[in-house]
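Quick start: read one record
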Amino acid sequence: MAHTVESSLNTPTAELRSLLDSAERQLPTLDAQSLPSYLQRLDRIAALFTLLEAEHAEQQTTTNQVLRSETVRWDDLQRQLAQRSRRLVKLAAASGGFAALRKQYAASDGDWWRLDTFVAAQQRKQLRGLLRTIAITALLLFVSILAYQRWFAPDPATVALVNNLSEIERYVDEKEWEPALVAVENALQATPDNAEFLTWAAVIAEQLGDAERAEQYRAEAKAQFAQQELQFYVLLGSNRFRAGDLDGASEAADTALALNADDAQVHFLLGNIAEGRGEIDAALAAFDRAASLSEEENPQLTVVARMRYGFLLQQLQAIPNQFDAPTPNAEDAVESTPLVTP
């Protein structure tokens, strides 16, 4: 009985299973010193599989039938070796690398002795992939730049126009009329027929009290609108309003209203002027009218007009009713300030 047990422990199959057990357990904690013996143990495992395959061939069976689980474990162990190949290559560096180990030990043809070449091949593959990605990205970027420059990029004249207009409006907002006039006249040197620049030039000249120059610029601007006289007065009124000239803006709006009483932009301008004067009821009516008139042709203006209407309505509701408020003493009375939204 003892002889039977001892024989079963010394069989190639038992040795194979024992070596697989130790190889699986040791791999996660493998160090540089034990690496050579570990690789030799793998050689022994491979040799045992070869031996068992020969034996099973004589018995007309296959290794997969007899050692199905061992074969699966062996395949899995080799996959783990490949996954940990970079770490194992670092461990081998302490002994001069895998090339030195192959010369020093009787290395088999097993892939585990050539993990350095496996890692090098992976690195070359990754490098080629990286270079390919960089090349594709560069090509796409180049094509995108060409497409943008050809079909989407604004022309230099448009860019200059926007920059000039921004500079003019900044000076107007700061009420710096002399620099504003210089900026608009410089812009007109590049685009002398630009209606927006001419209109701004007229409004700025008005603020400087130069009636003759203002009249000249107004005439030149109006000529640019040809059959769109109403649009000229809307632009003139809007620019005057931005410059703080409410009376001049109202005069231009009234002229535009006489040309077309159902134009949404005119009523929106009237709403701005009324709000600027603190005439909240008139502003609400004008914004409501602008929103109604622009629903079909200019939905964006409809949205803006309704937002302005809602904002003013909220402010109006927030003002205390004068009949509900306590009557102040004479010495405490102060002049009420109309609601003005700049």
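The mean pLDDT is 85.
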